[in-house]
TrEMBL record:
Keyword Thylakoid among record annotations: no
Transmembrane stretches, start-end: none
Source domain of life: Eukaryota
Key words of the record: Repeat
Source organism of the structure: Crocodylus porosus (Saltwater crocodile)
Pfam families: LRR_6 (PF13516)
Keyword Repeat on entry: yes
SUPFAM superfamilies: RNI-like
InterPro entries given in the database record: Leu-rich_rpt, LRR-containing_regulator, LRR_dom_sf
Protein name: Leucine rich repeat containing 34
Amino acid sequence: LDLRYNVLTDVGAKHIAKLLQENSSLRYLNLMFNEIGTSGAELIAKALHRNEALLYLRMTGNKIRNKGGMYFASMLQVNSTLEKLDLGDCDLGTQSLVAMATVLNQNKAIKAVNLSRPILYSQEEDTTVHIALMLKNNSCLVELHLCKHEIKNFGVEQLCEALYENCSLKYLDLSCNKITRDGVKFLGELLKRNQTLEILDLHSNRIEDDGAIYLSEALALYNGTLQALAVVSNNISGKGLVALSDALKTNTVLSYIYIWGNKFDEATCMAFSDVLKTGRLKPNCTDVDPYEVDGHIYLAELSHGLKKHYYWTPSYGPVVNKDANASLAIGAVSEHL
């Protein structure tokens, strides 16, 4: 049942809760960007205490706030069926994020969770620490979205320490945070030893050349599992981008790489033109396309990425476009998330 982009309020949530209580066949419910608030969240969450059918719930963009997030955390203590939960852009607070992390220590059903863009007032990264502790204990979670969590280098260090002990997480989304080259150093060390991660999204951070080099060293010599890397808009210049293209020559597993929004010089344009020309990188697996003007190679942008269509559906062409939503092609758990 897909009800996204409507004007369902808490009154509508009452009917949805009744449906969830009485229906034993509904598997997928998308309520993205309606007007459901805290009261509606309470009704839906309590209905899921007894529901044993729903596998995926998307609440994205409904302002259920901290209290609404607490209702869903309580629900996850009881519900053992739900596999995917999207609470992105729901104005969750510190308390509900900590509660969610605590509950996920025990929940064995949830495989994918989106907690992006909470409203945080502290710079202490308490929520990141709790999520890291959860990752040490959780052996079921495959996909985790922590976009816009104000994660800095300390937070990345905590997450990496936890992921040395985690053997299930395949997709880690750390986009739109405050990660610099020092934080990426921890990620580089993790990639040298981690044999699980398949997708790493770092777009809209500030890893710069040094960070790109840390990643490329790990990918070129040690890592054999990462399939997709997004470093869009990270203030990387030619030195770092060329290092990433060189890593592709020795790493045969990394198949998707997204680099738009960085500082392209001629060496970068030539390097990515070469890996595309040799067939090492397929044109539909990156977001740049080389072209030549007056004997010089330049790169144009392509509308490809890990989840370009997360917030919207294109007006033409296939709804599930694998080039624009590569995470769907790589991991089955990402479907609809």
